[in-house]
Amino acid sequence: GYRLTSLLELLQASFSGRPPGSDKTVAISFDDGYSDNLMAIPVFERFCFKPSIFICPGILGKLNTFAHKAGFTIPLLNPEQLAQLADSGWDIQCHGWEHRTIKNRDIRDLEHEFLRCRDWFSQNLHIDPTVICYPYGAVDHQAARVAARHFTYGLSVEHQALDIDPRFRVPRISCVDCLSRDWLMNQLNVKRISRHRIANEDN
Question: Are the CB atoms for 76 and 59 separated by under 8 Å?
Answer without folding.
Answer: yes
